[in-house]
Every structure is written in C-alpha cells, then in structure tokens.
Amino acid sequence: MECLVSYFINFFNEPSPRWAIFSRVLAATFGGYALATSSALFISQLLSSSAGRYQAIHIGLLLSFLVYACAAMWVFSASNATKAWIGLIKWNLAFLFGTWLLMQFSGASH
Amino acid sequence: MLLLTSLSFLAMVLFCLAMNKHRKQVFEQTLPKLAVLLFRPLAWFVLMFTAYLSVALFGWSIGPALLFGALTMATFLLIMVLTYNAKIVPQLAIASLLMVSVSVLTH
Amino acid sequence: MKDNFRQSMKWFHTWVGLSVGWILFFMFLTGTLGYFYQEITRWMEPERPFIEHNLSNEQLITTAQTYLQKNAQGIDKWDIYLPTVRNQNLRVGWRNPPEDGKKRGRYKTTVLDITTGEKVESRATGGGRLLYRMHYRLHYLSTKISYWIVGFCAMLMLLAVVTGVVIHKKIFTDFFTFRAKKGLIGWLDIHNVLSVIALPFHFMITYSGLLFFLFTYMALSTNLQTNEDEYREMRKEIFPRTIHTDSANQAAAMQDLSSLYQQAKNTWKKDELSAIEVFAANDINAQVRFIRHETDITYNPNDYVRVNAITSEVIEQTPREYTVAGMIHNGFYSLHEGQFAGPLARWIYFLTGLIGTAMIASGLILWTTKRKPKQLKKLNGPDFGYRLVEQLNIGTIVGLPIAIAMYFYANRLLPVSMVGRVDWEANVMFISWALLLIYPAFRPATKAWREQLQLAALVYIALPLINALTTDKHLVNSLSQQDWGFAAFDLTFFTVGCCFAFSAYKYKTLQPKKVVSRKKRRQDNTLDNDNRLQLPRISKENG
C-alpha cells in the first residue's frame, strides 16, 4: 500500500517531467477549448454590428479552431507548465472582459 | 486540367533550374549566365499565367482548387524524376510544352 | 518545453503526430477511397448491367417515370439519377415511410435495367458508401463518440500541419530535395516533400473536416449565445435550403417529365442532365427540379431548373443568399467532398489523398527509424514503446490496405444469400486488420514487414483473378466492352499489388540505397549495417 502511494506521489511529483507534460496536455485540451470559446464570444461581439449577429457568431466559430491550435502550440512552447496555465487564464479573462465591455457598449442582452 | 498540369510542370521545372544544386543535377555543362538569371522570373510568369488560366477556365471557385491539385501532381512528378533520372528533365519539359500547345490548339 | 520555440514545436509535432497517427492513417485512406465511392459501389454490385446505349435523356426519363408510377405510389418525393461517367446505370430513389418508432424512413435506391425498365436485383453490399463513411463514423462506434474522436484527431492533425510548417527550416530551398539513398535523411526528405507539395490540400482537408461538425464541437459557444430558436435560424442563414414543396393532398396528373425536360434544355442550351427531383408527385402542387453537374463550389442557381409539373411553367428561383462566412463554410464542404471534380480532377483528388496518407505513414516510420540505432543497442532489446510503435506501423501501414482488400474479397466470396451480408463484409475487413495488427507482435520487425508486404502484394494481384472467377466482368470483357469502370478497378488492383511486390522485393534485398515506388508510402528499405553506422552523424545534422 505504502509502496503504491509513494509510486503515485512520485508519478505526480511536481517537478517530474511526466506530471508537467500531463499538466500541459490538460492545459492545451481544456484550457485551449476554453480560450477558443471565449475568443469566439469576443469576436462575435466585436463583429455583431458590422456583420449581423448570426454571421458574427459564425465567424467566431470558424476562427475558434485556429485560436485553439495557436493556444495549444503556445502551451507547449511556454517555459514551464505553470506559466502555460497562467497565460491561458490571463487570455481567457482578457477575452471575457473584452466581451463584457463590448456588451456594455452595444447594450446587448447576451 | 491537362493543360494546367503541364503548365504547372513547366513552371516547376523552371523554378528548380533556377536553383544551383538542382541545375547541376540536370545539366553537366554550365549554362550561360543570362539564361540562369531568366529562369526564376520566367517561372513566376508561367505560374502566374497558369493561375490566371485556371480562373479564366474554371472560375474563381473551382479554378484555384484545380490549380493547387495540378501543382501538387506536377511537383511530385518532378521530384521523382529529379531523384531517379534527373537527365530527362529537359525532355520532359519539352514534352509538356508540346502537350500545352496541343491542348491549346484542340480547345 | 525545450530551449527555443522551434525545438519545442519539433517535440510537439513528433508526439502529436505519433499519438493519433494510426487513426489518421485510417481516416485518410478510407476517406481517399471515398472520392471513388460511386465507382466502388458499382464494382461491388457486379449484377448491374453495363449497356452501351444510345438512348436519349428523354427516353431514360420516361423509363424511370414509368417505374416510379408503378412502384412508388403514395411516395411524396422521387429522385431520378441519370447515367453519368461515374455511374453508368439509371437509378431511381425514394424514402420509404418511417417504421414505427423511427423519425425517418430508409432511403432506397433501385438500379433499373434500361432495356427492360425493370429493377436489377444485385447482392446486398455496403459498397463504397460504407467504406467512405468509416472515415468519420469509425464503423462500430456510436455517432456521438466517433464524431468526437474524429474531431480530436482532426484537431491534432491541424496542429501537426501548423507545427510542421513552423519547424521546417528551409521550405523553399529544400522544395525539390529528396535524397533517397541516404537512410534517415531520405525518410525526412520524403516526409517533407509529401507534406509541402500538398500543403494546401492537407490544410484544406483537415480544417474542412473540422467544420463538418463545427456546431457539435463548439456547442458551448453557440449555447452561450443563442437559444434553440435562434440557433435554428442561424443554421438556416448559414445553410440556406431550397423551398420544399408540400403536397396539397389533391391528386392531379403530372405531365411527362421527359417533355418538361425541354425547359431545362432551353435554359442550359445543352443536353446535360445528372439528376431529377420530383416534389409532391402526382399532386396539384407537383414540381420538378432538373439538376446538372455542379459548376460551382457553393451553389450556382443555373445548375437547377425548377418546373411546375402540372402547367409546365418554369418557376423563377430566387438565388440562395449566402453570408460571406456561410459561403466560406459551404465552399470548404465542397472542396472536402470534391463532388464538382471531373474524371481527371477526381484522380488528382485521389492521388493527393494518397500523398496525405503516405505523409502520415512516412512520419510514423520516421519516428522508429530515428530511434532504431539507439534502441538496438539496448541490452534487454528495444523498449516496449518502441516495439509497440513498430508493431502498429506494420499492422496499419501495410495491414490496413490488406484489410481493405479483404473487404472486396468478402464482397465477391460471401454467399449472395447470406443473412447479414452487409455487416459481414465490414466484419471481415476489421477482423483481418485486427489479425494483422497482432501478427507483428510474434515476429521480428524486419520479417513482419516483409511478410506483410508480400501478403499485400499477393492479395492485390489476386483480386482481378477472383473478380474473373466470380463474375463475368473480367478484364477481357470489360476492355472489349469499354467498361472503363471495371477495367480501371482490375488495373488499379494489379498496379497496387505490383507496388507492394516491388517494395517487398526491395525490402528483402536490403540495399543501402532507398527505393521509392511511385505509389504511396511503399518505400520500405530499412537501414542496413553500413547505414546504421552513419546514423548518429546524420541525426545530429538534422536535429
């Protein structure tokens, strides 16, 4: 039992490369997805007055895969996993804040 | 389509002859300097002309798609020839030139 | 991750590609075959007649209409498919009323014999359709699960394409470079060449693949911004539909479709017809839509002529209005499917698809080739991971083509009256793939490569023979009748078989020089001893 526990502790030991990679994979998959979604929200808010609401949403969706790809690449190029997570959260918050700000201007209900 | 492919092949041959290492693969003797200098602009010209032709023949939507297809095939053929029998590149270029003229005439 | 951006991306490219490489290989190969799915279906239904006919479109339309009047009474919408270059049979189709508890009925197409006007009975088969649907439906899995798996793999493919461009140092100077005789460098070169020359295709096919299920993958985003009604409205704006004509439940006699066709001919000033749709058949609201070959990647209103089937007036159609984004989205769909492609362009689509398949295969082989010298030096033999990758490579890169051949064998050899025949065709394919995946575990890698290559050569070269023994559509007949569909199949099988045989032979001789057969991924020389000694130097040069 003790052996098993220590194995797991070692496996997910903070500085161990395995844990770091696992953490990055999570960051790229889920953090990247969150970023793709928040960027889609931001883009659709940004364009909704010029392109029409539905088309704006659509453009946001079309670009989300590219954002996703860039996010994943960035996660794996950051110098360590913690930085990658912090960066993702920062950008997510920035997009969400931008969306909120634009919504205040346009007075949209969504 | 055949026209596009043979024109793409010509353009790619010219591009590759503009590069020193490939020119040495194809020709044993050195070519006049002027000819070498002309290869690249000529290649761009043929490529642009092919692009124009693809749009003129097939429209803005399908034309570019076919152009990329033709370029892929032509480049693949050229690379295989360069690797296994580089000396016949000039003959193939002339053959594709003939093919271009035939398909223009029959059009 | 690593010291600099390019190094990190190189690491990322390697592992992204490796983690789903085999599924991507499967998706690319079955998807590539999909460019010929109609032709494959025709091959798999050899009972269909091939008739050199000189019947006019009007006569064919009359034959179809007579059959539909007799056999599709009470069905609202009829489809008629005219013989084309891709499919030389006259076919009709309709959707049966739904069975109990089902939302939609089954869609059924029937092949008609144009001389007798009667139905052609052919064997039950999944055909090319089942084969190409595997590339996004993954056959055994449920729709939902397979869409997500496919999406995940496609996303990683997109990442691999983008990172691949980032890490390629000299795209333009190495554009034509393929140093075939140099072991590891040769593999790197061929991987680069196959990636770069078809880069627009790779990007297009991957990105558009993701777009097919855009609203499934990015559901969170749409759910946050739209409610159900708005969502439906948005979809309508992105995918505008032609107006569906409902029947008024008031019987009326339709005019002959063949005489209505004159209207379409007048509009097109050409006698080119590929399909007809009849809405509200035998009803006062009846309308007919004549469709010709697609001439645009989104929607060209000129490709359709709609006629009132009672009064024979042409109904003016307002062209569908696309938003710019909608046009891009639908354009990507068309580019992915390539329905607009004529015969030569279709072959180019097919070959480019094979280049994509070969690119994935060469990447997978590159992974093992690079690690081989180090792994072979290990005291306890190569690592488990290395052996697993090697085994999966053999079982997929050579195994899957064999399994696909088995799908064709099953079509010819399973008893025609067999129950569940359609399912078993696919089962045979997947069972043989499973066997070929397991087999390399019990053989040394070099022997497994060679034996599976030999097997692949054997099954593909024997396919035309089996075809000749089980049907009357062998090469002599198909060539003398100028039935190019069947002739092309036999010749392609034979060519593929020869390519496998050639690579098996080259593999056996194990010459240091690398030999590339023209057709896809069959460069299968590994390194011999001389080359192995040079490897460390080469890999440093490359790293």
TrEMBL record, chain A:
Keywords: Membrane, Transmembrane, Transmembrane helix. It comes from the Bacteria. The chain crosses the membrane at residues 20-44, 56-78, 84-103. The keyword Transmembrane helix applies. This is DUF3649 domain-containing protein.
From TrEMBL, chain B:
It holds the Pfam family DUF3325. InterPro entries: DUF3325 (IPR021762). The chain crosses the membrane at residues 42-60, 65-82, 88-106. Keywords: Membrane, Transmembrane, Transmembrane helix. This is DUF3325 domain-containing protein.
UniProtKB/TrEMBL annotation, chain C:
Residues 519-543 are annotated as: Disordered. The lineage of its organism: Bacteria, Pseudomonadati, Pseudomonadota, Gammaproteobacteria, Alteromonadales. The keyword Magnesium does not apply. This is PepSY-associated TM helix domain protein. Keywords: Membrane, Transmembrane, Transmembrane helix. It comes from the Bacteria. The chain crosses the membrane at residues 12-37, 145-167, 188-215, 347-367, 388-410, 453-469, 484-505. It comes from Colwellia psychrerythraea (Vibrio psychroerythus).
